[in-house]
Amino acid sequence: MSIRIAGFVVGAVAVSADQATKMAATRMITLNESISVLPFFNFVHLRNEGVSFGLISSAHPWVLSILALTVITILVIWLWRTDVFQIACGLGLIIGGALGNLLDRLQRGAVTDFLDFHIGGFHWPAFNIADAAIVSGVIWLVACDFFMRRAGASNR
């Protein structure tokens, strides 16, 4: 399998998992409902009209959609040009997550969030599989950069 195809497959899996879980969440839980699952975890059904953690929620959905399309395009170009398998996979996660949230924004005008974690007085903002894919992809790319630089320094 080529490096490019691997990245696109990872992205397709991420967007598919995101859309399937959002569909299940919206069918099982009414909007703004919360179901306690564990002492530190709830299933919720929320709509996020902004970007991460509700930032820029006053922007029109089309503005955020154009911004997302721009970022996705840049990431696809990067994926197309990379010759490193690990980077392709990290980019695939980010692209798939961004596409998952973009599809929500285009279909509903807002992103569906349904995973809600809290411990003691600390409450993490609700998120979804697309958000998890984006964060995981970014962490993966940072780790790849760190280890590639370290390996490059040891080869000198």
Describe the structure.
The protein is an alpha+beta fold and 156 residues long. The chain has one domain. The protein is built from 4 helices and 4 strands; from the N terminus they run αββααββα. It has helices spanning 3-28, 61-81, 85-108, 129-154, and strands at residues 34-38, 41-48, 111-119, 122-123. It has a 4-stranded antiparallel sheet. α1 packs parallel to α3, α2 (61-81) runs antiparallel to α3 and α3 (85-108) runs antiparallel to α4. It is globular. The chain starts with a helix and ends with a helix. 29% of the residues are buried.
The fraction of residues assigned to DSSP E strands is 15-25%
Instruction: Provide the succession of SSEs.
Output: HEEHHEEH
Q: What is the total tally of β strands?
A: 4
Contiguous low-pLDDT stretches (5 residues minimum) are none
Biggest sheet: strand arrangement: 1-2-3-4
Main sheet, how many strands, which sense, barrel?
4 strands, antiparallel
Termini separation comes to 31 Å
What's the mean pLDDT score?
89
What is the count of DSSP helices, taking H or I runs of 4+ residues? 4
Specify the overall morphology.
Answer: globular
- Proportion in helices: 55-70%
Number of domains: 1
